[in-house]
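Hi all, long-time lurker, first post. I run a small reading group and we've been trying to get comfortable going from sequence to structure in the token notation. Rather than ask abstract questions, I figured I'd post a concrete chain and ask someone more experienced to write out its structure so we can walk through it together at our next meeting. Sequence below, copied exactly:
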Amino acid sequence: MNWTGLDGFIASIELGMLLLSGYIIVRFHQSFQASMTSAPRLEPLQTLPDRLPSIAVIIPAYNEAINIRDCVESVLHSDLPDPQQLQVWIADDESTDSTGTIAQELLAQDSRIHLLSVPPRPAQEIWMGKNWACTQAVAQAQGDYLLFIDADVRLERGAIAAALVEAQAQQTDLLSCMPQVVCGCLAEWLAQPIIFRMLIAGFNMGGVNDPDQSDVAFAAGPFMLFRKTAYEKIGGHQAVADDLVEDVALARQIKAVGLKMHLIVGLELVKVRMYQNLAGLWEGWTKNLHMGAKRSVSGTLTIALISFFTLTVPWIGLVVGSIERFAWGWPGGVILGASVVLCILESILWRQQSALLHQPVRYWGLSWVGGLLVAAIAVASIVKTETGWGWTWRGRSLAMPNDAKTNPTA
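-- Answer (accepted) --
Happy to help. Here is the structure in token form:
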């Protein structure tokens, strides 16, 4: 076979896809590296200061029986100059599992814990996600700073003190910490590293921390530390009540009014395991991936295409090239060789990225499956968000009225 005729045309298309894949791999890695290297780090303190501001830690919890005990205990074990300056608020958001029972047990063990049974949402108002629970807890919490964390977060002993010191040193109104992502099951290893790399590459941390770039805003929902006066100034979670991706919305609010946003990497001090299995991962990311892309169909499809071209196309090329090598001769060998080069390149860059994220390299040979999984999540997220079909979180419907869907919060 040569490069003429139908076979040659097909081979040319395949080679073009591989070249495009290589270009996207390199550009994505450059964006990831630029974002990570521009981000400040939250480091453990060598010594505690004599005093720190008071702080209220607010943990919204909906069916978090598997997480709530370990999360609260990690907060209570924090090293602080005065432990009594810490309040822990568990906002039980109408859980139907044993979250409330476990919270009651914790309440009896430490006077710093406060339990709020969140009342039902107002029938005539739109309150998405955790916004209602957080608003109810803030109304009762006391502290100079408010720290919102998710129940699947685990804090190291020095995390809160280090964050408070950093917030004071930088005169920050909102300090958000990118956590280390912990993976347990195979589904997590396939999807979570890819999605978090997408977030880091897509939201340049240098731009987020630049007050002159008011249109670049991002925050990590698992750890958001507000100066209380700043939180009140932007209207808190009530101001973004109808936004499911409230972390990014609150970051936009902070920058919109000229307050200081500080996004920081805290891999050593903050850890999160978001999901326990494939079903939870699928429901969770299809819930908010499209919303996180501002409900831009083109933006969400771009995520799908980047995932497919960077991780799946090189492996498809290996299979197709191997077959064509024997069927077509040297033109098939070109496809096979290009695919091998791309797989090696992706492996090297993936290891570099994993080292920066403090993640071991596991199941890399299944990265093509991860690429397909994330692409499928992106497409499903568009369908669920735009139609409301199956758009749920732990069985609770997230479908919005038609007027809210046509006029989403920016």
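A couple of things your group might point at:
Confidence is low (pLDDT under 50) at residues 403-410.
The chain has 14 helices and twelve strands.
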